[in-house]
């Protein structure tokens, strides 16, 4: 399986009513050098200024971003190129990140290359350490900046650490 770590930035809590502003993806392997970054023009007039502020962009800047259909088609092509096996979506908050990526794929390309499921990095860590109160975020090497490629890379580094140091049985 080809694990692809994903992180999204949005201007609100749900897709459709609000927009995915940008997202990043990293193929999880030892190099972490296969990345994808997309900036998407808003699909709705609605946005929450505080949510948008997390991304570091203004509303005016986002209005000049790329067409979502083009970005999602390019992302699907990138996944096909880098995933020599079945692509597996993983993130540190898959309930949120998956919701946007899945909705955008189905809405703009009519198919989701990841299928119908996703994995949660935090849950993997909690299971490995057998403690639901623990958090994996100290395992990141790349600083968490809210640039989605940086954040996806940091999470991918944590996943590699789970394999190397915690004995997680996983194949990249």
Automatic annotation (TrEMBL):
Pfam families from the UniProt entry: Rv2179c-like
Stretches assigned to the 3'-5' exoribonuclease Rv2179c-like domain: 3-159
Domain of life: Bacteria
Keywords linked to the UniProt accession: Exonuclease, Hydrolase, Nuclease
Annotated GO MF terms: exonuclease activity; nucleic acid binding
Classification via InterPro entries: RNaseH-like_sf (IPR012337), RNaseH_sf (IPR036397), Rv2179c-like (IPR033390)
Annotated protein name in UniProt: Exonuclease
Biological source species: Niastella yeongjuensis
């Amino acid at each position: 399986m080809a694990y692809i770590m994903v992180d999204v930035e949005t201007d609100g809590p749900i897709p459709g009513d609000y927009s995915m502003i940008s997202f990043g993806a990293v193929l999880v392997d030892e190099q972490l050098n296969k990345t994808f970054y997309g900036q998407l023009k808003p699909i709705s007039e609605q946005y929450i200024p505080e949510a948008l502020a997390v991304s570091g962009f203004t509303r005016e800047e986002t209005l000049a971003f790329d067409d979502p259909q083009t970005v999602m088609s390019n992302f699907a092509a990138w996944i096909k190129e880098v995933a020599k096996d079945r692509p597996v979506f993983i993130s540190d908050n898959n309930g949120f990140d998956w919701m946007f990526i899945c909705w955008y794929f189905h809405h703009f390309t009519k198919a989701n290359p990841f299928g119908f499921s996703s994995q949660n990095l935090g849950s993997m860590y909690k299971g490995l350490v057998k403690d639901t109160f623990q958090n994996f975020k100290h395992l990141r090497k790349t600083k968490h900046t809210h640039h989605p490629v940086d954040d996806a890379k940091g999470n991918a580094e944590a996943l590699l650490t789970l394999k190397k140091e915690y004995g997680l049985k996983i194949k990249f």
